[in-house]
């Protein structure tokens, strides 16, 4: 599927938010060098012409004839429980073969993997729109960048949670967007169970926008990591999402929902963990998506295979209104073309070998279980440290994701020194032998957020097992004791 072909566009349901689409997108035209000419009256074309149009090499030129992918039965079980095959050719409609995967392809992705993604979204995410669509991307960052490309004109304002995965700010600025931070005052002020509540702060911002930001136009979009926030690890409640979506409707901005961590969903460390969830129980435990509230088409949900399959696959997808997806596909056509055919074949055929959709959901549950074990082990280890018992630190028990935020409870009278004191804590952690990310380094505006930057982000994903995280918690604790003894 190429650019906005008039015949194809006529099949797309009406989109109520064309005014939010960037001018560059609406001005794009489709250029092609091949054509089809209708036969003149009385002329009949050959029924089986020899087509020499496409510059596609015959599959006989491909040096690979078959791939065997040895699969683990569960995370950290390097036992090659079964083999997923990518054959040279196949008659199995759910599989991708090398003849197809190694060839040029449509920019929205191979039909087999698109069907997997659509089935997954229907089964797990459950969008409220009567009609929605999916386009494959080259991972989450690529999907977000294409959303920015689709929405932003130079000078447009974009709302961000004040702490965020701030490399994504570069994608916003690339298309002329101006990031504006939303204060997260409640997240770090509510003990060890963080709250991702900011609807009040956002409503106050929007109702006073022209006074606070006289040089900026009203926001075009909100970029949010609502479930398993990076860096904070917390999730927005459904009530908060409803309020924020209502604000989007009232103040007319688009929502870009970045969801790399939503399926790594946790129960609190204080509760007995359930590692035997059925697929239905797992799905019911997940935090609802903004797409479950969206009936007007102002939400794009960006997903990735990086956290539940592998980052090197460079695969993800965007779910949104069909017309928005067609705009995303124009970005694909111009910027990247189709995602890697080999990656799509390996991921798709692995899912087929795991048992299709239900087997894939089960695998994701197993991945979630391992992260839950790690998270609980580290939270409990923090709670055993002298630093925790003395009130120097508060680990925020994450709702989902790969990160634990450790709050350093600096004295109120030293709040103005937060950045320098946190840098001092970072040095003491290095002396103890543990490294993390300073919260201030993940701020949209470090000066704006400096007094709320009294935390570090701890990644629980790379160590080989939970014992490493337990030792790390002890080191973080000793560094905190050392810091407070000098205050």
Automatic annotation (TrEMBL):
GO terms for biological process: aromatic amino acid family catabolic process; lysine biosynthetic process via aminoadipic acid; tyrosine biosynthetic process. GO terms for molecular function: 2-aminoadipate transaminase activity; aromatic-amino-acid transaminase activity; pyridoxal phosphate binding. Residues 75-411 form the Aminotransferase class I/classII large domain. The lineage of its organism: Eukaryota, Fungi, Dikarya, Ascomycota, Saccharomycotina. This is DEKNAAC103082. Keywords: Aminotransferase, Pyridoxal phosphate, Transferase. InterPro entries: Aminotransferase_I/II_large, Class-I_PLP-dep_aminotransf, PyrdxlP-dep_Trfase, PyrdxlP-dep_Trfase_major. The keyword Translocase does not apply. Transmembrane segments: none annotated. Belongs to the class-I pyridoxal-phosphate-dependent aminotransferase family. Its cofactor is pyridoxal 5'-phosphate.
């Amino acid at each position: 599927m190429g650019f906005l072909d008039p015949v194809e566009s006529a099949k797309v349901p009406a989109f109520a938010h064309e005014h939010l689409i960037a001018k560059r997108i609406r001005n794009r035209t489709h250029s092609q060098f091949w054509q089809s000419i209708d036969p003149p009256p009385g002329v009949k074309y050959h029924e089986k012409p020899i087509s020499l149009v496409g510059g596609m090499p015959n599959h006989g030129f491909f040096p690979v004839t078959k791939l065997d992918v040895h699969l683990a039965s569960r995370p950290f079980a390097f036992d090659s429980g079964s083999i997923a095959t990518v054959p040279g050719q196949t008659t199995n409609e759910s599989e991708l073969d090398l003849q197809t995967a190694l060839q040029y392809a449509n920019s929205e992705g191979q039909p087999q993997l698109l069907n997997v993604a659509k089935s997954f979204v229907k089964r797990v995410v459950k969008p409220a729109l009567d009609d929605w669509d999916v386009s494959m991307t080259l991972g989450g960052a690529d999907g977000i960048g294409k959303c920015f490309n689709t929405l932003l004109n130079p000078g447009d304002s974009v709302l961000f949670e004040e702490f965020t995965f701030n490399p994504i700010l570069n994608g916003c600025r690339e298309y002329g967007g101006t990031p504006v931070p939303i204060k997260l005052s409640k997240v770090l002020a509510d003990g060890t169970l963080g709250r991702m509540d900011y609807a009040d702060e956002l409503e106050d911002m929007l109702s006073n926008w022209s006074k606070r930001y006289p040089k900026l136009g009203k926001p075009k979009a909100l970029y949010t990591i609502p479930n398993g926030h990076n860096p904070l690890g917390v999730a927005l409640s459904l009530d908060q999402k409803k309020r924020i979506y209502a604000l989007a409707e009232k103040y007319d901005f688009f929502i870009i929902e970045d969801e790399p961590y939503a399926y790594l969903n946790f129960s609190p460390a204080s509760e007995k963990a359930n590692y035997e969830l059925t697929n239905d129980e797992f799905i019911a435990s997940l935090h609802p998506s903004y797409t479950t509230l969206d009936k007007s088409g102002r939400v794009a949900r960006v997903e990735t295979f990086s956290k539940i399959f592998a980052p090197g696959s460079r695969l993800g997808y965007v779910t949104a209104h069909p017309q928005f997806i067609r705009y995303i596909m124009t970005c694909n056509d111009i910027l990247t073309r189709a995602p890697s055919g080999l990656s799509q074949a390996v991921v798709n055929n692995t899912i087929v070998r795991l048992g299709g959709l239900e087997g894939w959901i089960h695998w994701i549950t197993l991945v979630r279980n391992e992260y839950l074990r790690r998270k609980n082990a580290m939270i409990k280890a923090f709670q055993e440290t002298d630093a925790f018992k003395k009130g120097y630190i508060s680990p925020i028990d994450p709702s989902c994701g790969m990160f634990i935020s450790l709050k350093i409870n600096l004295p109120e009278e030293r709040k103005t020194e937060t950045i320098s004191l946190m840098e001092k804590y970072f040095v003491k952690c290095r002396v103890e032998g543990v490294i993390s990310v300073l919260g201030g380094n993940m701020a949209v505006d470090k000066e704006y957020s400096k007094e709320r930057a009294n935390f570090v982000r701890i990644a629980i994903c790379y160590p080989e097992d939970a014992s490493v995280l337990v030792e790390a918690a002890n080191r973080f604790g000793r560094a905190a004791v050392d810091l407070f003894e000098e205050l």
